[in-house]
Design a protein that fits this description.
Elements: E1 2-4, H1 11-22, E2 24-28, H2 47-52, E3 55-56, H3 69-85, E4 89-94, H4 97-105, H5 115-128, H6 130-140, H7 142-145, H8 153-166, H9 170-173, E5 188-192, H10 195-211, H11 214-225, H12 237-244, H13 250-273, E6 279-282, H14 288-296
Parallel strand pairs: 1-4, 1-5, 2-3, 2-4, 5-6
Helix pairs in contact: 3-4, 5-6, 5-8, 6-8, 10-13, 11-12, 12-13
């Protein structure tokens, strides 16, 4: 089963309940929760939740590593096969639309990286800043740009690299996805949430992150990675460090983190609206029984 939706839509809680009732194990499909040392800022599962239900792929990747959709597909395949071999039910949970699309259809048509092209793009990042390259990507490949943060240097550079190599946008390469057979058999369930319902949840989450230790987590990440690492620009972490350094007061840092999460949720909603293979449930009030009914109906 794949359970997806925008951030703060209640995916994790619902997945925990599903796994507890149906002998399930949870697999990470979130592009931030996979990194070690970033639990609070990514709203990752707690130690108690991991003890209650087996979790796979959460907080295991070194934050200094580069991670991509190809690696996600390979590692998720391994985890799913191991779970099924134990007679258990794998439940993929997350909002990483690009990763989930890759898991469904594969990535064979995307070329391998070109070190020369990438080096030239990284030189431009240094000279112009990642936001300038993001704006270029948005003009040429709005589908991919809409699914990633303007601060995500790795993914912005990779998408522009593909454009330079092939003359095609990654989004165009995916344009025939609905006509391709999926590479995996699964129930694809999407929690849909409008922004009016998500807004208070996003603000409450930002406040809770700061209350429960986001600032020291961000400081520890900076000490581990150095002061200029791209991971420190992740939403929440950048704001926590601005507060820690006295450049924002706490209220302003929380407000800024909330607004970035809100923009991210809007991008996720836009991404998932374009995909017609999901069985959609309203996030407000979605229950285990609702999901079980989808499974029982074979959807």
């Amino acid at each position: 089963m794949v359970l997806a939706g925008p951030t703060a839509s209640g995916k994790s809680g619902l997945a925990l309940a599903l796994a507890a009732r149906g002998g399930g194990e949870i697999v990470c499909a979130d592009s931030r929760q996979l990194y070690a040392g970033m639990r609070i800022g990514s709203a990752g599962p707690t130690d108690a939740e991991c003890a209650a239900v087996p979790h796979h792929g959460f907080h295991v990747v070194d934050p200094d590593e580069t991670y991509n959709a190809g690696r996600f597909v390979a590692e998720t395949d391994t985890a799913v096969q191991a779970i099924q071999a134990r007679g258990r039910v794998p439940i993929l949970v997350g909002g990483a639309g690009l990763y989930l699309r890759a898991y469904r259809f594969g990535l064979d048509e995307v070329p391998r990286g070109d070190p020369g092209v990438r080096a030239a793009l990284l030189d431009r990042v240094e000279a112009e800043g990642v936001h300038a390259l993001y704006d270029e990507l948005r003009a040429q490949d709005p589908v991919t740009a809409g699914a990633i943060s303007r601060n995500d240097e790795v993914r912005v550079v990779r998408a522009l690299e593909v454009l330079a190599q092939t003359g095609q946008a990654v989004g165009e390469m995916r344009s025939l996805d609905w006509e391709r057979p999926p590479r995996v058999k699964a129930h694809w369930v999407l929690l849909e949430a409008d922004m009016a319902w998500l807004d208070p949840r996003l603000l409450a989450r930002a406040r809770e992150m700061f209350r429960t230790g986001l600032v020291p987590e961000a400081q520890a990440l900076r000490a581990r990675l150095g002061p200029t690492h791209e991971r420190l620009r992740t939403m929440g972490y950048e704001e926590a460090l601005l507060f820690a350094d006295g450049r924002l007061d706490e209220a302003a840092a929380i407000e800024r983190a909330y607004r970035r999460q809100r923009r991210y949720a809007k991008r996720q909603r836009t991404w998932f609206k374009k995909e017609g293979w999901w069985t959609r449930l309203p996030a407000d009030g979605a229950t285990v029984d609702d999901v079980r009914a989808i499974v029982d109906a074979g959807l």
